[in-house]
Fold this protein.
Amino acid sequence: MTDGLSELDRELRDVARRVERRIDPGATAMVVAVAVLVLIGAFLLPWIGDERGWDLLVGEGGFGILPRIFTFAALIFGVAASGLALALRHWWLAWVCAAGCGISTITGVWAVWSRQISVPQGGLGPEFGLVLALVTIVVLAATWARIALRR
């Protein structure tokens, strides 16, 4: 009888440990899902001149390294990691998304800045898609930080 109780106790501790490592984003999961869809849509819009975000991702346009770094960071942390974190609901993935989207925010600001300083020399400035992607990454960073810190 005591072997059965000790086995049940061990099983309950394992379940409690698994539950502690998970997150429940609640209604903010909808905010993350909509932001991911908006970010995917932003990749289809013009970022610099006529070049879309997907074009910059594959290396077309030759607009420098900063916009390209932002496209990779936004795709990896804003789309892939956010989708994975919503699906798996692991606490450590929420932290990865919060930190990654925060880093993506910095690279996005640099990407916009790099395009704005090139305009006086005849370069092309940031378009609507780049600005929308930056705003969406800021929303994702704040939302993931709120989800991760809630625990």
Observations:
- The mean pLDDT is 88.
- The helical segments are 2-20, 28-44, 53-57, 65-88, 91-118, 128-149.
- The radius of gyration is 20 Å.
- Strands lie at 46-48, 51-52.
